[in-house]
């Protein structure tokens, strides 16, 4: 459904009036990053699924030069990854 790096839309916009979020962490909890102000929110997966509306852009389709707060693939910390 959604993966780390996807840009998603939630049912309600953030306080900064932007409704574009980047999925930063997946697990029992999901961390998302507001692409308007950079605020990070962590919520339980069940709560996220209730508030989630749709995927705007998949991670492999994102043009990083057009996103101000988008994490570059080199900066992602994936689980079970040896550096």
Automatic annotation (TrEMBL):
Pfam hit, one: DUF951
Matching PANTHER family: DUF951 DOMAIN-CONTAINING PROTEIN (PTHR38455:SF1), HYPOTHETICAL CYTOSOLIC PROTEIN (PTHR38455)
Protein name: DUF951 domain-containing protein
Organism: Bombilactobacillus folatiphilus
